[in-house]
Amino acid sequence: MDIFTNVEFIILLTLGFGVIAYLVGRYNKTAGAFATIIGTAITFLAVAYYGLNGELDFTADLFPAFSYGFSNLGIFFAVIVSFIFLMVSFFNPYFVGKYKYPALYSMLFMFSLAGAMGVFFTNDFLDMFFFFEFVVWTSLFLIPLGGSKKAATMYYGFSAAGSFALLFAIFMIQKETGRFNMETAFAHVFTTKQSVVIFFLFMFSGFAKLGAFPLHIWLPKVLGKAPDPISAVFSGGLEKLGAFVAIIGIIRFMPMAITDTAGLFAYLNATAFLSNGMTLLQLIIGLLGAMTIVFGTLMAIRQDDAKKLLAYSSMSNGGYILVAIVLMDSITFSGGLYHIVAHALASTAAFLAIGAVSRQTGTTKMSELGGHIHEMPITYMVYLIAIISMAGIPPMGGFISKWLIFQGVIDKGLIVIGAATFFGSIGSFLYVFRPLAALFLGQQLPQFKDKVKEAPILMLIPLLVLSALNIVTGIFPIQSMRFLNINAVLNELGLQSLVFNGWTIAGHNGGLQATLIAGMFGIGVVIAFVLFMLLKKSKQVGLMDTYTAGNFIYTEELLHYSVDFYAPLERLYEKYINIMKNFYKSLANKVKEFGRVTKYFFFTNKPEITVFWIIVVIAFLLWGDIV
Amino acid sequence: MMVGILTGFGVALFGFVWQTSLGGISRKVVARLQKRYGPKWYQEFLDIFKLLSKRATSHGWIFDLGVIMALGGIIATAAFMPVTNDIFAFADFDNFFIYVYLIAVGMLGMAMSASGSGNPLASIGVMRALTTMLAYEVPFMVIVMVIIKHAGTSSLRGIAMAQQDAGMWYMVALPLGFIVAFICLLGMLGKKPFETYIAPAELASGPMVEYGGKQLGMLFIMHEITVFIEVSLFVHLFLGGAENIFVFLLKYFVVYSVANLVSNVNGRFKIDQVVVFFYKWILPLAMIQAFVALYMNGWWN
Amino acid sequence: MESTKFSPITKLSKEEVDRKWWEIGDFFRRNSLWMLMYCTGCCAIELPPAMTSAYDMERLGMGPMATPRQADVLLVTGYLSLKTLRRVIYTYEQMSEPKYIVGFGSCTINGGIYHDSHVVINQLDQYIPVDTYVAGCMPNTEAVMNGFIDLMSLIKNKKADGWKRYKENYEWYKKNQIDSLGEVQVHDEYHQ
Lengths: 627, 301, 192
Fold this sequence. Notes:
The structure holds 3 protein chains of 3 kinds.
Chain A: H1 7-27, H2 29-52, H3 72-89, H4 92-95, H5 102-121, H6 125-142, H7 149-177, H8 182-187, H9 194-210, H10 218-225, H11 228-253, H12 264-267, H13 280-301, H14 306-326, H15 330-361, H16 377-390, H17 397-412, H18 415-440, H19 457-475, H20 477-483, H21 486-492, E1 500-501, E2 504-506, E3 511-512, H22 514-534, E4 539-540, H23 567-573, H24 579-602, H25 607-621, H26 623-626
Antiparallel strand pairs in A: 1-2, 2-3
Helix pairs in contact in A: 1-2, 1-5, 2-3, 2-5, 3-5, 3-11, 3-15, 5-6, 5-11, 6-7, 7-9, 7-10, 9-11, 10-11, 10-14, 11-14, 11-15, 13-14, 13-18, 14-15, 14-18, 15-16, 15-17, 15-19, 16-18, 16-19, 17-18, 17-19
Chain B: H1 2-33, H2 43-52, E1 57-58, H3 61-79, H4 96-115, H5 120-151, H6 156-166, H7 170-173, H8 175-189, H9 200-203, H10 214-238, H11 245-264, H12 271-295
Helix pairs in contact in B: 1-3, 1-10, 2-10, 3-4, 3-10, 4-10, 5-8, 5-12, 6-10, 8-10, 8-12, 10-11
Chain C: H1 14-31, E1 34-36, H2 47-51, E2 63-65, E3 73-77, H3 82-94, E4 100-104, H4 107-110, E5 132-134, H5 141-156, H6 162-168, H7 170-181
Helix pairs in contact in C: 1-5
């Protein structure tokens, strides 16, 4: 079993399972999908068991060009991402039949997991860039299997911009420190103007992968049109790559003590800009994070397609993670890390629940669905627990992370970022409630009445496991944090650990005892249940026997409220939603124009222009003699 | 721990009894304003017990489960509320955010079961309730952020005792904040002019359209305890808490009566007017108050 | 010798326990009647004076409620054409038990001034069980208040059991309804 402690072996094994899945999938697509389940299970068990116990072995024997190193942050992210891949892989056998290239799907699924593991474990910046691009390319070809090529193009455009920014930053680091190694880069103290540029490039790359404002246009299109398991993997797993890059950028590359400066760069110096000790750079990133939260929430409220709604929700939660990280305060940072965990679990569960519904009914648009709780009660409960966690309501995990983030925001006294955070928190009730009311509750539509059944047992397993974890991370946060070694990650990044007093988490202005809250909630529900049972039993009536002011009704579609659910609120900001999209469209048009200009001047078949260039070049070469 | 839990449920029961009686007394006050006699002071108790004794109809398991979850969540929230400096269930765990989010559990349970009844009027009512919540919570939380930063603790009892030690209430120290919080309190209690989500004649009482009998009785109990929690929150945050029980009852009575009288002379806003009102007038006021309190502290000295 | 302190405690039989709960229940029900704001005919104009300042109905604990599921009392105010009667019966069946009906005006007693019309029914009691009537065309507001107090005392004496009568004699009521109104034709205009 010792061979499984070697990180290089794990990554090669994942790649190998990808090839096996492809070969098996050529003969039988469902068997290829089962191969992905087994592959991801082995990867997750190896990484989690050996990683969390600190026994991973980082020597690279077979491919010495790639080197790996120990970092608690990498192990933390690797455990989460591989777990999400494992849960989603249970859905593969049921969805693989719909795609045009099922064997390719299974192979690319495993390859993207291998690439993500490589990004987290590697020690060298060039290797990180290689694995980063590997993830982009493998997930790029998974997207059009859902039917839309434009989504793939958009994804590639934004991801390529992010990757090239990362490459540029890596070369600038190499120029500063002389090597591509991560440890020397982290130990070096950056004092020149270039460090600000490096910081911005890292943040640009992180924003592009995380889907934060202003690079968020690809997120709803891709997650809305990709195959359902892939949307879950993107939201729960691959976006965390962006969070990883952002954490490295902020914690390691925030410019400190720039010495050869004047003017603007002196202002961007690490001295405190605000009275609470925050620098201008932190404030800028924090404001961008706040705008991500607000825009994500507002756009999510008006969506009709459930997957696009959850995509905007992922964008909004990415904003939360950014705000949490940039405050650079140990309590808020641990809140951000815990939010990564809680959001990954909740968002994946929500996407998978919607996927289970769409497999039976063929659509995810909420205006065409209704009343599915009566046929799919377990899927409903899974979705309910997921949205309780996403909205940050106790007793689920989302409350713990939001509480920790609020502690930091209040302690620093940030008014605008605080208002945006509160707005996002309350607004999330609105948009997560909409699929619940429009899709699961309400009237049962006649076209689905007897044709929809509960999801099959193999699909229910990951849904139930994710729900159980959502509950456990909320009721026992201290044990979960100890299990994932969050204090080790904080110490490695130079921040203080979280203080646990017995069963309480200590914050800046108060303590949080989550077990007590969950316990009181449980006792309260028991009291209400006892009261309910003691009273007279109710008469059960059907859904159509409802108050209609005495009218007789026969059509369920007219009684189901799902189209334009938040219409009065939407009308208030309808005019402003296309600003960023139009900006990018005009940017694309300007690039096309530039290409046409170049083509006109340099690639033409007009003899006048050739003569012009000949004269210009000769004049340039003979300048000294002419003048 | 057990003593704490029992005290907590005692506080919830006390809150229910006190608020229900006060509801009846308020109805009498409003009736006297309209030159009539009004019901008995214990009329609300009679209403609730009458509802609990009827046999109602139910639309499925989600209908009942939502009501149980709503009432359970609210009882749990009320258990954390400190009443005076000496009567409290859990020291240091009565964080402000627990109240905001556990009330949200109650609302989610009610919304779930209202939509599960199949009536579109219930879903519209829930939509309006959530939109109103989006409007009033953000300014309120900005003001509370200022109070927490200033007092240094987010425990309600801590904030109340800080005001008693300093000898000045936040009502006087943050006047704009007091006005903002009072208007947000009107929104929280669901009183006119922010009563859009119930709208008796427009939406046939909104989310409560399909409830009868014991479910409606349990929802009424939930509403009374929610009002108790919200007005107590206001008393502890802005009026300095209470040293003994009589002072608490007096302050509570004054706040609730003023809220009741203000709401009885107003009409009802439309839902987009509610959102525009809060974001155009109240949120900027809250931000100005926060800016002045946090960053311009003592500039006049 | 046995001490007299340890005599066995008699338990109430089931009917007696039920009756005790029913009495408590009746106390609550008669002091907090909620009426459904369903105004079928001209006698409805007598309700606002009863609700407002002069003859305050809220003193008795009565108040208006929006939907039949929440209400206890259905006030059938005025004449009932066939169209309205179908909806009144549907609304009555949607109410939660125990429920009461008060018939206002002469039209519910014997047809009133419309007794020879071909679209108005004459005796409401044949179709749904009525607990008490308030006679007059229209009744005076003091008569309306008197009618409510009569209903409350009927509840106290356990004579207001119209809903039980409806359940026991359902076939008789249904036969009368079908004779006068015919079957309710459900007619799907949306899909035609």
